[in-house]
Amino acid sequence: MLDYIRNLIKRRDYVVKLHTRKRMIERKIKIGEVKEAIANGEIIEEYLDDKPLPSYLIYGKTLKDRPIHVVVGVDEDVIAIITVYEPESEKWIGYKRRR
């Protein structure tokens, strides 16, 4: 699934909702950093029963070593970037497992 997500991102077949864009601005996370995190990241949680699309939590780091979590909804031919945030170390073990 991760390769599929990466390919759609490379092809620019993704959407970022207005709410998500606002949160990214508040959190000072740029779309380039999101792409970097997905490019070198891994799926750490799956939410296959999510509606309207199954979604995945991806953990990755930017080229500047910033940890990022990205939740993406996956459709047949497009990715929806649902939320993006920098995980808090007190809530995550190695940014990959919830405490």
How are the SSEs ordered, and which strands pair?
Blueprint: H1 2-10, E1 14-16, H2 18-26, H3 31-40, E2 42-47, E3 55-61, E4 67-74, E5 79-85, E6 92-93, E7 97-98
Parallel strand pairs: 1-5
Antiparallel strand pairs: 2-3, 3-4, 4-5, 6-7
Keywords:
YaeB-like fold; 3 helices; globular; alpha+beta; 5-stranded mixed beta sheet; two-stranded antiparallel ribbon; 99 residues
Overall description:
With 99 residues, the protein is of the alpha+beta class. The protein has one domain (2-98): YaeB-like fold. 28% of the residues lie in helices and 35% in strands. The model has no long low-confidence stretch (mean pLDDT 95).
By CATH, the architecture is named 2-Layer Sandwich
Count of DSSP E strands?
7
- Unreliable stretches (pLDDT < 50, length at least 5) are none
Residues in β-strands, percent: 35-45%
Provide a brief overview of the structure:
The chain is of the alpha+beta class and 99 residues long.
